[in-house]
Amino acid sequence: MSEEIESESVSESVLDHSGYVHSVTGSRVNHPQPHLNGASLPSESPTSLPDGFPDGIHDTRINSFALVSYLPDPLAAFLNHLRHHFAADCMARAHITVLPPRPLAADPRAVWRVAQTMLQEFESFTIELGDVEVFPATQVMYIALNAGYAELVAMHSRLNTGAIAFDEPFHYHPHITLAQGLDPSAVQSALVYAQRRWTEYNHSRRHVIDRLTFVQNTVANRWTDLDSLDLPTHAVR
What is the chain's mean pLDDT, rounded? Predict the structure, then answer.
């Protein structure tokens, strides 16, 4: 991913940006649970970014930022279609969350520069998608990872420090969300459906994480891509 600011095309999307453990095995910090699509995360008042970041919708932005890696087609297209089955109006783009949504007390542009410096310590790596599962505590349905989990946890741990740090309400648990907010009585049937559909996916379930995108939420809960960074790829196996 290029380090230059992508000012010519500002991408908007609705993301859940979850990345927390939703199972009862993780100890929970004493904070309100954030809505998984970021809507109820700390937002306070609309805020704009400093010069240099895309500013097409700066008057609607709120103080909620995240770091994600989008999945490519055909994998993303399949997962997006599957999510639409459970929420027809869902506009989420399939992704892996590296840093779940958080407010920033410092200049976002300066924070991003710090994050870019820390990310130079990492090389691209491969993830492999596993089975469809459900977090017991929240009934969020997701796809687990068979590979790449440890690398994502290490990256999250490195980045969640200093000006970027946030006292997250759950332990970080990399995954790909498929459905949330389902009627509890419908979760089991939804799980069976998703598991069956996932077995029908005939393409590779492996993907190289080599691009990370810094995003900001808006009052309309539409996430905006601010900038991206490419990770070196020479060490990927």
Answer: 80
Q: What is the number of structural domains in the chain?
A: 1
Q: How far apart are CA 34 and CA 111, in angstroms?
A: 22
Instruction: State the average pLDDT over residues 108-117.
Output: 96
Domain annotation covers residue 195:
yes
145: containing domain: 12-48+56-230
Q: Is 97 inside a domain boundary?
A: yes
Q: What is the pTM of this model?
A: 0.76
62 assigned to some structural domain: yes
Number of other residues whose CB lies within 10 A of the CB of residue 64: 25
Residues 6+ apart with CB under 8 A from 219: 43, 46, 60, 61, 62
**Domain of 28: which CATH number?**
3.90.1140.10
Alpha carbon distance 174, 152 (integer Å)? 7
Total Cβ atoms within 10 A of residue 211: 17
CA atoms within 13 A on the CB side of 192: 4
Q: Does 215 fall in a domain? A: yes
